[in-house]
Write a structure and sequence with these properties.
42% helix, globular, binds pyridoxal-5'-phosphate, Aspartate Aminotransferase, domain 2, 16% strand, single chain, three-stranded antiparallel sheet
Length: 380
């Protein structure tokens, strides 16, 4: 049985160097050795976020960092604007509701992106909004939001700018300082290509002022506690961290920096462009508006008469390529190709061969090889 190629929007294939790093002996998380690795890893994290501010690792998945971002900076009863154009925008909204925040939704049709103008207009009409949340890369729809341009708008308002880069950091352009992002969060298992289970967060001075202005109602994710432990010598985390995942993040971030952020982002954009062209070459339709389609995940409409179980079951069981399905109301209606992490033409050739052969086998297309031909042309 061939090894399954993960073409998911997370978890992604983990580099053997990272797996080897993880197998090192576990050390005391309250000792100097762990302090050293934690310092190095959080410094690397800040480099990847492109911020002069400190970053914090949280043992938990990306959602933990999403919750930390909101629960520490927006007090219960304060007003917050959440851009909702997919499952993860909805999640920010649900988290804010769970923490007693007065939420307002800026609803965007799934498959399209919010515009800076929409944010500007909403903030002008609602001067009491304390923070806004935006998903940079809406993984459920394959859409990238214009976080750089929104950042320009946000400079004119006091509201905090909270951005989820869980499925974009290390794959698309994210510059926390330049874009004026106040709180930025990410996860380990997507473009950073580490195993799942660790998340990261960084906060601006303005965001820390908000943190200090009230007592958060989260205990495990209390950022005041994270800051206090992080400021110790040697630095620590408030509760026992996953030591092995810290090693993994350390190695994964080194790999990112060795490739160089610009090169890595360019590689992801190339894979996205090649994937979009190959989807079209197969005669399939994109789900997302192509003008705002993601650099890390391509969402494709399921061809008429093809079931999700037959399609993804065959690509996985017969051709060893694991693709993602749709979520919520998109279940069965779309499939998603994650091209994040260690992705190049090799993985895309295998993926489009599997898609072409499967769809031909199911009688949905005539030419099984058009996708592969298109990928080779894109990479020539
Ligand atoms: C954009 C985005 N935000 C948040 C999350 C949640 O991350 P996790 O599943 O690691 O909790 C995901 C996961 O797919 C995501 O794609």
């Amino acid at each position: 049985m061939d090894e399954i190629l993960l073409m998911l929007p997370g978890p992604t294939t983990v580099d053997p160097r990272v797996l080897t790093a993880m197998s090192k002996a576990v050390v005391n998380h309250r000792g100097a050795k762990y302090g050293e690795i934690l310092t190095e890893t959080t410094e690397l994290m800040s480099k990847v976020f492109q911020t002069p501010n400190k970053s914090y690792l949280l043992t938990g998945s990306g959602t933990a960092a999403m919750e930390a971002a909101i629960a520490n900076t927006v007090a219960p009863g304060e007003k917050m604007l959440n851009v909702v154009g997919g499952k993860f925008g909805e999640r920010f909204m649900k988290i804010a509701n769970a923490h007693g925040i007065d939420t307002q939704e800026l609803s965007i049709e799934w498959g399209t992106a919010v515009t800076p103008k929409q944010i500007e207009e909403t903030l002008d009409e609602n001067e009491d909004i304390k923070a806004i949340s935006v998903i940079h890369n809406e993984t459920s729809t394959g859409v990238a939001a214009p976080i750089k341009e929104i950042g320009k708008v946000m400079k004119n308002y006091d509201a905090l700018y909270i951005v989820d880069t869980v499925s974009s950091l290390g794959g698309d352009e994210v510059n926390v300082e330049k874009f004026g992002i106040d709180v930025c969060v990410t996860g380990s298992q997507k473009c950073l290509a580490a195993p799942p289970g660790m998340a990261a967060i960084t906060l601006s001075d303005e965001a820390w002022k908000a943190v200090d202005s009230f007592d958060t109602n989260t205990f495990y994710l209390d950022m005041k506690a994270a800051r206090k432990s992080g400021d110790k010598t040697p630095p620590e985390t408030p509760y026992t961290p996953s030591v092995s995942l810290t090693y993994a993040m350390n190695e994964a971030l080194k790999i990112v920096m060795e490739e160089g952020l610009e090169n890595r982002v360019a590689r992801h954009h190339k894979a996205a462009k090649a994937s979009v062209a190959a989807v079209k070459a197969l005669g399939l339709e994109l789900f997302a508006d192509e003008k705002v389609s993601s650099a890390t995940v391509t969402a494709v409409k399921m061809p008429e008469g093809v079931s999700d179980a037959d399609f993804r079951g065959t690509t996985r069981d017969k051709y060893s390529v694991e693709l993602a399905g749709g979520q919520d109301h998109l279940k069965g209606n779309i499939f998603r190709i994650g091209h994040m992490g260690c992705i190049s033409y090799k993985e895309l050739v295998q993926t489009f061969a599997a898609i072409g052969m499967t769809l031909k086998g199911l009688g949905a297309i005539e030419d099984a090889s058009a996708g592969v031909a298109s990928i080779t042309e894109s990479y020539l």
